[in-house]
Amino acid sequence: MAWDHQNGAGPVDDPVLFDTSVAHCARVYDYWLGGKDNFAADRAAAEQAIRDCPDIVPTARANRWFLARSVQFLAADAGIRQFLDIGTGIPTGNNTHEVAQAIAPGSRVVYVDNDPLVLTHARALLASHPDGATAYEEADLRDPELLLDRAAELLDFRRPVAVLLLAILHHVDDEDDPHKIVTTLMNAVPPGSYLVVSHPASDIGSEAAAKMAENLNEVMAEKTTARDHATVARFFDGLELVAPGLVRVSDWRPPAGANAGYPAAIWVGVARKQRC
Ligand SMILES: C[S@@+](CC[C@H](N)C(=O)[O-])C[C@H]1O[C@@H](n2cnc3c(N)ncnc32)[C@H](O)[C@@H]1O
Predict the structure, then answer these.
(1) How far, in Å, is the centroid of ligand 1 from the Cα of 257?
(2) In this structure, how many other beta carbons lie within 10 angstroms of the beta carbon of residue 15?
(3) What is the mean pLDDT of residues 56-73?
(4) For burial by CB atoms within 10 Å, which of 72, 138, 196, 267 has the most?
């Protein structure tokens, strides 16, 4: 499907059909964040997950918090002005362009998701500051070359780009080789670019999380694969992790007074591509 620039015509104006009888990860996540863009099947799956693993709600919120914190770091401290946010999700508070453009109004952001429901909300993502620009691309992470081709319509790949992969890589099965996908993306951006990853952890906590994943995999359209620290660390091969490294979400540059004992079972990291 074609994609749309800020205020342009295109897919956001087209009728979009999607199956509401099967739970979808974007809408289940929306429910955990307290959103209203979900249907009965999504709510049933989300509620079952909460029964299996009550920590999932603070975990989802901590992940969203990390998105805002990492984009703030990239825009304010690292001087990044271009963002490729893959697996955008249904718009909520602190969308990437809002955080980045509050610091650097000229920031350019390309959002990518493969959920047609996210597409119907693309207008909210296209409300760019006039000095910057945003675009929405309906595409699949498992086809990174196509995704990059389209993103190049708005982003200048001769200049640093932050590639954001937040809470999406666990929806890519091992057989689709998520590490190769990340390598393809990072090979396309120049030195000085960044990779941001958040990923559910298989080695923090609990049987509860494993049970939740097992049950979600029975009802949700996209499967979930939690991964351990070493496997998530491989996404950053060849890159330099910024402090504090690949850590639990609650330990990534927490603001003073934050609850460091947060139960969130997610590995997060931000890394810079160095010169060869
Ligand atoms: C759990 S949400 C995360 C949203 C946001 N990144 C965040 O962290 O707050 C995962 C998103 O990834 C999208 N997604 C899952 N698999 C995808 C794929 N193969 N290609 C593109 N988007 C995908 C889903 O549609 C959903 O919107």
Answers:
(1) 30
(2) 5
(3) 94
(4) 267
- Residue with the nearest Cα to atom 23 of ligand 1? 87
Find the range with the poorest average confidence among 9-23, 66-80, 126-140, 219-233: 9-23
Taking the centre of ligand 1 as the mean of its atom positions, its distance from the CA of residue 79, in whole angstroms, is 26
Give the binding-site residues of ligand 1, using a 6 Å CB cut-off: 25-26, 29, 63-64, 67, 87-89, 113-115, 118, 140-142, 166-168, 171, 222
CA-CA-CA-CA torsion for 236, 141, 54, 251, nearest 10 degrees? Answer: 20
Give the distance (Å) from ligand 1 centre to CA of residue 86.
Answer: 7
pLDDT of residue 108: 98
- Tokens coding 216: 């979600």
Query: What's the pLDDT at 241?
Result: 98
pLDDT score, position 125: 78
Enumerate residues 6+ apart whose C-beta is below 8 A from 79. Answer: none
Nearest to 239 by CA among 203, 202, 196: 196
pTM of the model: 0.92
- From the CA of 198, give the closest atom in ligand 1: 8
Give the whole-angstrom CA distance, residue 118 versus residue 139: 11
With a CB cutoff of 8 Å and minimum separation 6, the contacts of 45 are 23, 28, 216, 219, 220
Helix (H) or strand (E) holding 195: strand 194-200
CA gap 265, 249 in Å, rounded: 8
- Tell how far the Cα of 140 is from the centroid of ligand 1, in angstroms: 10
Token pair for 184: 């393809």
For ligand 1, atom 9, name the residue with the nearest CA.
64
